[in-house]
Design goal:
Layout: H1 5-14, H2 18-27, H3 35-46, H4 48-56, H5 73-88, H6 94-104, E1 114-118, H7 126-129, E2 137-141, H8 149-161, E3 166-172, H9 176-183, H10 195-205, H11 209-227, H12 229-236, E4 241-247, E5 254-256
Parallel strand pairs: 1-2, 1-3, 3-4
Antiparallel strand pairs: 4-5
Helix pairs in contact: 1-2, 1-4, 2-3, 4-8, 9-10, 10-11, 11-12
Bound molecules: zinc ion.
Zinc ion binds at residues 119, 121, 143-144, 172, 175-177.
Length: 258
């Protein structure tokens, strides 16, 4: 069956209204019997993903469903947590895999089984923390691990197109963004633009830093579940999990919060 991803992306680039263009272009070529694929395509192109893809000039692979992880959401979460246990106990294995994975699997496509939204903090190297290699985790990072439209767009692309099975929203010990929000510090430039995103967690947890960091991870995870139609749809179908987590700098351990 002809998959009209090429027509979607090329049409999107030329049309000033990429979402409408992409929607109309997929109605005809898809046969009625394959309703699940139709739903997938509609879901893919009607959200912010289409704009993201058009803007970035990204190419879809011809059959993205075939290039996605076969893990269940629970198994994907377990894989992450087992990787973290290897990291915390100093038994990393990912470096042994790099060359083979790079050569065999990731030149033409990517099939990350998990996505992580983490803070930009230099002490939170996401792949290392989960003992994962090239092509395994779709990572978005922003100070305070806050959910913004651009973060949602990225995670929607990971979920709807690349097939990530779990999204971990991960706060970490000693987070400077949360600390600054608690203190309502005067800061230069646009740093304070982070405060409104984090303030609900401070309102909920008070001035206790660790409690506010954990509350923030849970609030951002809930926000992602609710504000993304793509993610909430996949959650309802049990095709993805969104889980809040906390990374302890001293022990190297990740704890699930939900
Ligand atoms: Zn931080």
């Amino acid at each position: 069956m002809a998959i009209p991803f090429d027509s979607i992306t090329s049409g999107s680039r030329q049309d000033p209204s990429p979402v409408c263009s992409a929607e109309s272009s997929i109605q005809g070529p898809i046969s009625d019997h394959d309703s699940s694929r139709r739903r997938f395509l509609q879901m893919t192109v009607t959200g912010t993903v289409a704009g993201l893809v058009a803007a970035a000039g990204m190419e879809f692979t011809p059959s993205p469903l075939l290039a996605q992880s076969k893990l269940s959401p629970d198994a994907a979460l377990q894989e992450l947590m087992e990787g973290n246990r290897r990291f915390a106990s100093g038994r990393l294995t990912a470096f042994e895999q790099d060359l083979a994975i790079l050569k065999q699997n990731t030149v033409e496509k990517q099939e990350p089984f998990a996505a992580v939204l983490s803070c930009a903090d230099s002490r939170v190297p996401v792949e290392l923390i989960f003992d994962q290699s090239i092509g395994h985790i779709f990572v978005t990072r922003v100070a305070g691990n806050v959910v913004t439209p651009e973060i949602i767009a990225s995670l929607e692309y990971g979920a709807a197109v690349l097939g990530t099975k779990v999204i971990l929203v991960m706060g970490h010990g000693g987070c400077g963004a949360v600390k600054a929000t608690i203190q309502a510090k005067e800061v230069p430039g646009q740093i304070s633009a982070l405060y409104p995103h984090i303030q609900p967690a401070v309102d909920q947890a008070g001035s206790n830093l660790e409690a506010a960091i954990k509350a923030n991870a849970k609030i951002q995870a809930a926000l992602l579940r609710e504000s993304s139609t793509v993610v909430s749809g996949l959650v309802k179908e049990s095709k993805i999990k969104v889980v809040a987590a906390y990374y302890d700098l001293a022990s190297g351990s990740v704890t699930l919060l939900d």
